[in-house]
Specification:
By secondary structure, the protein is an alpha/beta fold. It has six helices and six strands; from the N terminus they run H-H-E-E-H-E-H-E-H-H-E-E. It has helices spanning 2-7, 24-32, 59-86, 107-127, 145-154, 166-178; strands at 41-44, 49-51, 90-94, 133-139, 187-190, 211-213. The strands form two sheets. Strands 1-3-4-5 form a four-stranded parallel β-sheet, with helices on both faces. The protein has a two-stranded antiparallel ribbon with strand order 2-6. Helix 3 runs parallel beside helix 4 (107-127). It is globular, with a radius of gyration of 18 Å. Residues 206-210 have low confidence and may be disordered. It binds NADP nicotinamide-adenine-dinucleotide phosphate (NAP). Residues 18-20, 45-48, 68, 94, 96, 139, 141-142, 144-147, 214-215 line the site of NADP nicotinamide-adenine-dinucleotide phosphate.
Amino acid sequence: VARSARQYGVESVPIVVDLRNLDALDSFMRQLGPLESRVTVLVHNAAVMRVTRVEDVSVEEFGAMLTLNLLAPFILTQRLLPQLCASKGQIVFINSSIVNHPSEGTTEYAASKHALKGFADGLRAEVNASGVRVISVYPGRTATPLQASLSKIEGRIYLPETLLQPEDVASVVVNALLLPRTGEVTDIMIRAASKSMTQHSIIPDPNVLEAFVGKP
Ligand SMILES: NC(=O)c1ccc[n+]([C@@H]2O[C@H](COP(=O)([O-])OP(=O)(O)OC[C@H]3O[C@@H](n4cnc5c(N)ncnc54)[C@H](OP(=O)(O)O)[C@@H]3O)[C@@H](O)[C@H]2O)c1
């Protein structure tokens, strides 16, 4: 990301943090240091998905998913909110079209993304008056490592060219951020133009009882 940004003449400061470790967020804030006063846009993108039936999920596993997909965005938003209010900044939540189509094996993930939607909507009601805009994006299947491993679980051939491209999602986010301040894009649903590979029902391979999608 830093290399790509540099090509466009933008300097960036990458900070690596494991968002499953909430204690590490203190260290992240310390590393951010004086840069905190320059934060104007906060994008919550990191998440994990796992294909598991409810009866096979342990409370610990569900808790770990909620930590990354929900609690980390909550805490980061909380920590950076004073600065975002001061800068009349913008907060972007990369959610998922799964909120409209939870299916067998995706309950944990869908629950975490529903909670993220609730957080974003409630937050918007609190911070709009301070000039902060909150945008939720609900992509369908997108050609990323997550989708590559999901295809394996579903026993499909991975055809990235039939899916949404990460650049498509990035492009709608940038456009929403650039909207003049008279308006606010609150929710963006975006799906691949070709729907044949993007039906929402996830039918796990019967040989795969439980599988992390993307990075465990
Ligand atoms: N791909 C899809 O079809 C799809 C559809 C709808 C919504 N989404 C959403 O889009 C977002 C990006 O997903 P993706 O498709 O790019 O998934 P991915 O290929 O599995 O990538 C996951 C992203 O989350 C980061 N991440 C994972 N665990 C982390 C941790 N413990 N601490 C910090 N960062 C961590 C990864 O960082 P590193 O690269 O550093 O490992 C990576 O940037 C997610 O919110 C996902 O729910 C994806």
